[in-house]
Structures are given as C-alpha cells and as structure tokens.
What does this fold into?
Amino acid sequence: MKISKERKTELFIVGLLSIIILTSFVNLRSVQVKFYNKTGENIDSLLIGNTLIGDLKKDNYTKKIDFKEFLFDGNTPYEKISGIVNQKKNSSV
It folds into this structure.
C-alpha cells in the first residue's frame, strides 16, 4: 500500500499539531491551593515557595492561588513556607 505525498504531508501536519496542543496543555496546567491559618497567631509576609502571599490573619484563609509548580513528597506538599509571627521569622520545608 503506497501513501501519496499529499497524504503524508497531511498526516505530518496533524501529528505535529497534536504534539503542540498536548505540550501546551501539559505546560499550562496549574495547581490551585487554598491556605488556612490554624496557628492561632497572625502571620505577616507569608511566603510559600517563591510566591508572596502577604498577611494571613489567625483562623482565616486565602483565596484560591494558582501555582504553576508545586512540589509534593508523595501526597504531602513539600514547599518552603516562611512568615513572621510575633515579630519572629519562622520557616519550614
């Protein structure tokens, strides 16, 4: 069975477009996260990963925040988190 040059060109273009669309879809995905402050204290200058969240009052939560990249260790989030509580800088990984 011989495939014509035009048909090969069509298949190549369809394949190339499929790869571009799939790559775009994978790269444009993001993770939406909402953070709750259950520390009992106000947190100033909250920084999660490389994203500055700002102030987060005690027993309050943020709106949904889109992260292009968010590290996990199994099912547990694994991002550097830092902020100021009672004028003391705190951080965890």
Remarks:
- The two ends are 60 Å apart (CA to CA).
- Strands lie at 31-33, 43-48, 51-56, 65-67, 72-73, 76-77, 81-85, 88-92.
- The mean pLDDT is 79.
- The CA atoms of residues 72 and 78 lie 5 Å apart.
